[in-house]
Amino acid sequence: xxxxxxxRTRTNMKLLQLVWIFLLTLCGxxxxxxxxxxxxxEAILDxxxxxxxxxxxxxxxxxxxxxxxxxxxxxxGDTDPGPEFRGRVFxxxxxxxxxxxxxxxxxxxxxxxxxxxxxxxxxxKEIKSTIxxxxxxxxxxxxxxxxxxxxxxxxVTNLEETQTSALLRCVVRGASPKPxxxxxxxxxxxxxxxxxxxxxxxGNKYDTVLRITVTKTDNYTCVAxxxxxxHQINNTIFVRLNGGASKPNAxxxxxxxxxxxxxxxxxxxxxxxxxxxxxxxxxxxxxEEQKTENSIILWATVTMTDYYRCVTTEGKKDDELxxxxxxxxxxxxxxxxxxxxxxxxxLTVAVGVIAWCCCKKKLEVQHQREARKDII
Length: 376
Fold this sequence. Notes:
Elements: H1 10-27, E1 33-38, E2 43-45, E3 58-64, E4 67-75, E5 78-81, E6 89-91, E7 103-105, E8 114-120, E9 126-136, E10 155-161, E11 166-175, E12 180-184, E13 190-191, E14 197-200, E15 206-214, E16 218-226, E17 231-239, E18 249-256, E19 259-267, E20 274-278, E21 287-291, E22 295-302, E23 306-313, E24 321-327, H2 333-375
Parallel strand pairs: 1-9
Antiparallel strand pairs: 2-7, 3-4, 3-8, 4-5, 6-7, 8-9, 10-11, 11-15, 12-13, 12-16, 14-15, 16-17, 18-19, 19-22, 20-23, 21-22, 23-24
């Protein structure tokens, strides 16, 4: 059997690829499996040989416009991903001994959609798997894709501020198709403001302006969405009204030997800002505070499953703001309970066996005594 090295036999492989494409076309090869994933997600393409393939060559290719794009090549421990898949395609080395030639594609792109073929990379190119992959687009910032007409980052401005409110403006320039522009608060709630005004400019592009009046301290985000090109981009502005507390940002950091470590961050606090961690009953949780030039960070370690709130205040009950998270402590309680039950059952059985043995012994002694009396 002839093994082909991709680095030394590229020219011969190109000729063989043409023959292979012709055979696939002639035979009407179609995908056996259909897989759908979302953009930026992961896709596992299955392929099995049924025997140990640690020392066997196999490859994956993708059908593109009557040609084949290299996806992944394996031969005797060496791997060679295709140019479009470098850093995104992986195989399963520990599964090769079981004949598993599957691959995983990460950070999936819409351009990854197509038909993939796994085959034994010999001259005969025995096909082992054919899979149709569809990668569905998602709304995300596509500025780095240089799409014509994609909305730039919105310009956000605090036009006017009083002790109780602030007038915010968002401007999106040169977007095509016309974007949908909205304001959101830090909870992701869409806010109702003035009707957006879109002005058509040269090249069928639009300049859009949206204003809104807000009445509480918070982070406010202007979001521009162009569903036609799956592009969404935003910009955030922080508003702290006079006498208002800064809204905290709470999150779970990691598990430690003592419990779960929580972090709360308050941006641009005033000198009067106070920050607390509280449990679901309103009781204060012991914490450690760290102050920086522009923020307050509060750390707390908790040991019980519960809802925990990070609360900020400027000294008045009405200006309290909070962010809440749920923490689940995996302390092995069920395991301990199961062990207790098993130990209890074992002890019960053991006591029962001992009692039965004692009773049996007593009965044997009694029978022996009665037998002696009969003899006498």
